[in-house]
Specification:
This protein is α+β, with helices and mostly antiparallel strands. The chain contains 5 helices and 9 strands, in the order E-H-H-H-E-E-E-E-E-H-E-H-E-E. Strands 1-2-3-6-7-9-8 form a 7-stranded mixed β-sheet. Strands 4-5 form a two-stranded antiparallel sheet.
């Protein structure tokens, strides 16, 4: 496996990875449809945000780092001292889950965050990913309460010092 910086022409493939990975958790299809805008990776998004992908003959996973997370209509502003980044995406194709690719991408994200001058990485995690992040040394520091199609939803807010 190689980790390569994503380019604009990878946008549709990265979108496919994100949607496929989200579907892996057996969410209702209606929820997937509602999430498609936030799971869509555009060429502009790639050019504006640090985006890296895992390649095993083809892209099989990716992550992105941003200064501000805009997700599910909630905006989380950066800290005033600008020393933290948000992990906006970390997705692995279901057939490649459990092979250490997510761990390698996450470790790469930590190194890139440090190289970009951050001292903290923050994550608004999918509940299904919380245990993965905890294994990586990330701690839960809060929760984001919302509704999805009339159902309550609680997302862990997590962070790790770099």
């Amino acid at each position: 496996m190689k980790i390569e910086q994503a380019r604009a022409e990878h946008a549709s493939k990265l979108t496919e990875i994100a949607i496929s990975a989200k579907r892996h958790w057996n969410y209702p299809e209606r929820w997937i449809e509602l999430w498609i805008p936030s799971l869509t990776i555009s060429p502009d998004y790639i050019s504006q945000n640090e985006t890296w992908m895992a390649v095993v003959e083809k892209p099989v996973g990716f992550y992105s780092l941003v200064d501000i997370v805009i997700a599910r209509r909630v905006i989380f502003p950066p800290r005033n001292d600008k020393d933290s980044l948000w992990l906006d995406n970390l997705w692995i194709l279901p057939n490649f889950m459990g092979q250490g690719i997510g761990k390698q991408l996450f470790q790469h994200a930590l190194e890139r965050s440090k190289a970009l001058g951050a001292s903290m990485l923050k994550i608004e995690a999918d509940p299904n990913a919380q245990s993965f992040y905890e294994k990586m040394g990330v701690r839960k520091v809060g929760e984001h309460h919302s509704e999805m199609d009339g159902q309550p939803r609680i997302l862990p807010i997590m962070e790790i010092n770099l």
